[in-house]
Design brief:
Shape: elongated
Distance between the termini: 45 Å
Strand order of the largest sheet: 1-2-4-3
Strand content: 25-35%
Number of strands: 13
Helix content: 10-25%
Order of helices and strands: EEHHEEHHEHHEEEEEEEE
CATH superfamily of the largest domain: Cyclophilin-like
CATH topology of the largest domain: Cyclophilin
CATH architecture of the largest domain: Beta Barrel
Structural class: alpha+beta
Length: about 210
C-alpha cells in the first residue's frame, strides 16, 4: 500500500489488486469519522481516491485509511456502516454468443457456467469505460477467462460479459472485447434516475437466470 497526496484535497491509495481496493474502500466508507472528513471515495482497478471535505487536510484523511490492506475483510464494521449492503438483482437470459466458448475455456458445461455466474454474489469494484458500466468482482473464480482475441465492433446494450476477474453489463451499444454469455433488459444508465448509474461502487450484484 502507498499513500500519496493528490493535491491538497485528496489522498491516493495505491494497492496491489482489485480485491484490496474493494476492502479499503469499504473500510474508509465505514470509518466513524468518514461522514465529517470524506467528500467522496473513488475506487479504481488498483487505487482508491479519498477526497476531503472543505477544511479537511490530507493528514486527517491518512488517519482513517486502514493501516494495512490485509486487515480482516470480514470486518463487520464495513458491512454494517458502509455502503456494501446495497443489493441489485439483474435478470439475465443466458444465450450469449460466447457462452459455448466460455464453457470450453473453463472446462464447464454451459449450464455449469450459468450456475457459476448466478451462484455467487458479485461486488461493484469501480466504474469506467462508459457511463453506467460497472466492473464486478468476487464471482466464481472458475469463470476467469481472457478477452476475445478480436473485439466486436458493436456490442448491444444489456449484454452480460466476462473478462479476466471481472463480469459486467454493457449499458449502451459500443465496441467491446468481453466474452458475452447473456443479456438483460434492465437499464444500467438512466438520466432520469438519481443516481443515473444503477450499479455504484460497493454495491452487491446478484445475477438471476430468466428464460
Amino acid at each position: 500500500m502507498r499513500l500519496l497526496p493528490y493535491g491538497d484535497r485528496a489522498l491516493l491509495v495505491e494497492l496491489d489488486d482489485t480485491a484490496a481496493v474493494v476492502t479499503v474502500a469499504d473500510l474508509v466508507r465505514a470509518h466513524p469519522a468518514a461522514a465529517t472528513l470524506v467528500a467522496d471515495v473513488v475506487p479504481g482497478a488498483r487505487t482508491v481516491l479519498v477526497v476531503a471535505r472543505p477544511g479537511v487536510t490530507v493528514d486527517q484523511l491518512r488517519a482513517i485509511v486502514p493501516a494495512h490492506k490485509h486487515r480482516d475483510r470480514s470486518d463487520p464494521g464495513a458491512c454494517e456502516q458502509g455502503l456494501s449492503q446495497r443489493e441489485t438483482v439483474i435478470p439475465v437470459v443466458y444465450d450469449g454468443p460466447d457462452l459455448a466458448v466460455v464453457a470450453a475455456l473453463t472446462g464447464l458445461s454451459e449450464r455449469e457456467v450459468v450456475a457459476a455466474h448466478t451462484g455467487t454474489p458479485w461486488r461493484v469494484a469501480f466504474g469506467g469505460f462508459a457511463p453506467g458500466f460497472a466492473y464486478l468482482v468476487g464471482g466464481d473464480p472458475r469463470l476467469r477467462v481472457p478477452r476475445r482475441d478480436e473485439p466486436r465492433t458493436a456490442v448491444p446494450a444489456g449484454a452480460v460479459g466476462l473478462a479476466g476477474e471481472f463480469s459486467g453489463v454493457y449499458p449502451r451499444p459500443s465496441p467491446g472485447g468481453w466474452q458475452l454469455i447473456g443479456r438483460t433488459d434492465l437499464p444500467l444508465w438512466d438520466l432520469d434516475r438519481d443516481p443515473p448509474a444503477l450499479l455504484t461502487a460497493g454495491a452487491t450484484v446478484l445475477f438471476e437466470e430468466v428464460r
